[in-house]
Amino acid sequence: MPSAKTDRRVERSRQALQRALVELIVERGYDALTVKDIADRANVGRSTFYAHFADKEDLFRDNLAQLRGQLVPIDPGPAPRDVPPALAFSLPLLRHVADARDLVEALMRSGPGVRDLLHELFTDLALDGLQRQPTSTSAPAEVVAQFLAGSFLAVLQWWVRDGRDMTPEDADGLYTRLASTGLVGWSGGVEDHGATMSEPWSPERARDFASLWLPAWTGNDPELLASFYTQDVFYLDPVLPDGIQGQQALLAYFRRLLAKNPAWVWTQRQAIPMEGGFVNLWHAVIPVGDTKIHCDGVCLVFMRGDRIHRNEVYFDRTTLVP
């Protein structure tokens, strides 16, 4: 049976490795690090590293698990009255980020593997909240949680890079405003901010609509694309986080956007029924010079009749860097 002295030595080694990983991510970035780099900084041998962790990803997961433990108390109790439980993780996490901005900036520059692990953490936190929130919608909780995680990652990335003057409380307000419609139909959600509610669209109906709507994003025909939207449409995406109102404003935006990307191609990966319309999981192929960038994202599509009344598009913009 291990002695208390042995247990303390083991714990010191784990903590040294965790600290070494954080320090080196800030200095060199995650992708460039090796197990030897981390072990050398922690002043332990590689055999000691492998006695605790399978690889650097395993160590990073352990660090994230420690963070999750700090953010999620054993007895979470009720969420603040004006915040749905599924969004309650946002403010504590943003406050933590404010104290470790250099680390998070370095993580945002890392490859897709790191973003996948962060997305996994945020999904788990959102799902914890959704499970404390009774539902009246057919949208699977796992999909809603992934949507909330993706939108949080987009807000986090923007805040760390470009929103330095914004407080954690302001960034949280931005996130909860943008993420709110992902909770339409969930008991305890927030106001739908103008979306016209109707019956959910079936996957078949959404697929038929997307077979006409998504091809209109290709070919630099902004008038055709704008014709799928109502006169008073509200639209937002990562470029327009505050959104724009009205078909004429949207048409002006589409003219600029499609002129820059005449040959991109958008396809639907899956349609999930949602009150007032559907959640559209999409894939885009975007020519950039001699290469093609593949980008996955999600958007909320609220319908009025056969036209889009509200469209919210979410994706990680770093995927657009070839």
CA-based shape: elongated
| Overall CATH architecture of the largest domain | Roll
CATH topology of the largest domain: Nuclear Transport Factor 2, Chain: A
Enumerate the strands of the largest sheet in spatial order, edge to edge or round the barrel: 2-1-6-5-4-3
Number of beta strands = 6
Mean pLDDT: 83
Biggest sheet character: 6 strands, mixed
Q: What would you say this structure looks like, in words?
A:
There is one protein chain. This protein has 322 residues and is an alpha+beta fold. The chain has three domains: 1-55, Homeodomain-like (Arc Repressor Mutant, subunit A, Orthogonal Bundle), CATH 1.10.10; 72-183, no CATH class; 203-320, Roll (Nuclear Transport Factor 2, Chain: A). It is built from twelve helices and six strands. The chain has helices at residues 4-28, 35-42, 46-52, 56-71, 90-98, 101-108, 112-130, 141-162, 168-179, 203-213, 222-226, 247-260, and strands at residues 229-237, 240-245, 265-274, 277-288, 291-304, 307-314. It has a six-stranded mixed β-sheet with strand order 2-1-6-5-4-3. Helix 1 (4-28) crosses helix 2 (35-42), helix 1 (4-28) packs across helix 6 (101-108) and helix 7 crosses helix 8. The longest helix has 25 residues, at 4-28. The protein is elongated. The termini are far apart. The relative contact order is 0.10. The model is unreliable at 184-196 (pLDDT under 50).
